[in-house]
Amino acid sequence: MRADASSAPAGGRLSRFETLLSAKAEIVGHAKILAAPAYEKLLRSERPLRRSIPILIILFLTIAAVARLSALVAERYEIENDVARDLKIAATLMRAESQFALMSEGQIDGAALLTSEVPREVIEYGRFAVISDATGRITAAMPGYERLIGQDLRLLMGESQALLMFGERAGVQETDFEGHDAFVASATLAEDAGTVSFIQPATDLFAGWRQSVHVNVTLFALTSIIMLMVLYAYFRQATRAEDADALYLETHLRVDTALSRGHCGLWDWDIGRGRMYWSRSMYEILGMKPKDDVLSFGEIAPLLHPLDGSLFDVARRVASGRIGHLDRVFRMRHSNGNYVWLRARADVTRCADNEVHLIGIAVDVSEQQELARRSDEANEQLNSAIENISETFVLCDNRDRVILCNSKYRETFGLTEMDVARGTPLETVMAKARRPIDSQLVTSPTFAAGERASEALLPDGRWLLMSERRTTDGGFVSIGTDVTQLKLHQARLSDSERRLIAVIEDLSTARRDAERKAGQLTELNTSFAAEKERAETASRAKTTFLANMSHELRTPLNAILGFSEIMRDGTFGPIGCQKYTEYCEDIHQSGHYLLRLINDILDMAKIEAGRLILNPEDIDLAETVAEAMKIVAIQAEKKQLTLAVAAPPTLQIRSDRRATKQILINLLSNAVKFTEPGGSVRLGLKQVGDAVLISIGDDGMGIPQEALRTLGRPFEQIENEWTRTNKGTGLGLAIARSLVELHGGRMRISSRVGIGTIVALRLPVAGFEQSEQSAIAMASAA
């Protein structure tokens, strides 16, 4: 009955679980919630066994039924074999008895043969015998079956007539007899005395077997019912256990969640064994990895802050019975190295084995400690601020009792610290305080409800402005401000007001005189504007004239230069005199200088007149820089200057090719011109974002700071006509600046006298089309 033992233990299963749980968490005893992870593992391990029990019970019942059914079938088969053997023996015996009777008596008496010669063992289980003649008519029958005499045996046995024909050779056959199942065996008697037939009714034969079957079926049914009832009880108990497990796990989850959210941990300290169990939330508070094992005393003791006591002292006091509960605040080290403030509350309990345990909770109070520290600091700062202010300060509660006042208040009203102790009624304080000589009520529409103010004159001649206001809890705060200087200033202000009125009268007279002079200035300004308009008209006419005269001025200069070059080179033959050659050289150089001067003047005139049109295109700025450097290389070589270029191989921008080249040539020519022989000229080129930066530096004489403000204007030079050493009109730098601005760029000049000059340009890479028209319009307006 092992199936029974494995099916009823719903309560027994819980007992085993409690035993395992107690073994797993022996130091927590009756606090099941502390061992939830181990309990959950145990539940998972028991679920397959719980589910296999019904299958085992059903399998047991099936095996028992098959085994018993096989035994009953074997028993029936054995009964059939026994009856067949007995019937054969009986038939053979009767045949032998008939022969013996024939030999001894000379005749065969069938009735006597059936009555006296048939053994009693052969006729058990309702078995009987009849003798029939050759026609099948029954001639004799055993006592009790006389009713069969005279009936046709062939009709009574149905289709089993072979027994009458073949006798013993037909064996034992299962047939019907009078409509009932029966086993029949026949034998032929001696001297044709007939056929003896032994008939075994199946009902009588299997009566005992059927009773055994009935008993077995009844017992199996009862056993199955009992087992199913046990299985039902087991399922019911298992369902309740699962519900209880689910409720327990849900409750544990809620408690664990509440502990985690509340920064609270459960702990159980086995004082005798020196071991401690922590809940998962306790590990989370200290940033440690949760585990189901207990912690030793040596693992926990180092986590405690050395200034917050020792666990040994607590253990000794608990073991000696000096304390029954614990409530203290201490610090424990977090996994990150910092310390966490915890407040532990616990009670001393004894478990079933009379072991002393300290069971309780630990709450993370780090925030409360930090808030308390900040509150203390804030109170100290507030008290310090109140103590160090220059005004008197007193704070009272809703029953007019002193809460706080500063030393300035005590000093002003002649009070001691005992007079203004916390909780002293304000009436008592005012009775001991120094009284003012005079008091005036101050009113103002800006005062809030419950706010009032008064001015008091103290015996030492000082004035105090006493401001009182009700607090939200019904108390009030009073602040006294020394307004002595304000009172003096008010007296002085009254005197100053009288003087101010006199000054205002004088100012009114002066204002009327100023208005008269302003009218005169307006007339002068009008005449100045007219003169300025005429001057600007003349300047525009001059600029327009120069722009229109570009062709007329260039044509004769080209002829002078061309003919002087022919004469200098002797194209049509020698002139004949060295002096004429030198004169032709001077004429040629002067013509070139005059042509450059006129070109610069005309370019500047076009820019000022707004008639210079730029043609933007995609150019390689690095190639343009190289071309400009080649042009100034000859002049630099004559002065033995070093030219240095720092530029990328290619740099594509959108710009006017001729104007860009003119900018570079003008700035490089100036650098070469003002650099002493043996010096150097440097050019740097790079792209920064959507702009190109060009810097040109030299080792020249430099430019004074006061000259940098005007440098870049037309005809502005740093040398006058008496001190300058280089030819020039000052238009090259002005043209370069104007062209840079027309391209939407900027130009900056930095220089130090005796060290050199750096000119920096910033040109847009692809934004020239957007700024072209606005730049031309700006230059035209200028």
Automatic annotation (TrEMBL):
Name of this protein: histidine kinase
PROSITE patterns: HIS_KIN, PAC
Chain ranges passing through the membrane: 53-74, 215-235
Pfam families: HATPase_c, HisKA, PAS_3, PAS_7
Record keywords, A-Z: Kinase, Membrane, Phosphoprotein, Transferase, Transmembrane, Transmembrane helix, Two-component regulatory system
Sequence ranges assigned to domain Histidine kinase in this UniProt record: 548-767
Organismal lineage: Bacteria, Pseudomonadati, Pseudomonadota, Alphaproteobacteria, Hyphomicrobiales
GO terms of molecular function: phosphorelay sensor kinase activity
Organism: Aurantimonas aggregata
Keyword Kinase tagged: yes
Reactions mediated catalytically: ATP + protein L-histidine = ADP + protein N-phospho-L-histidine
EC number, as in UniProt: 2.7.13.3
Residues covered by the PAC domain: 326-377
Region forming the signal peptide: none
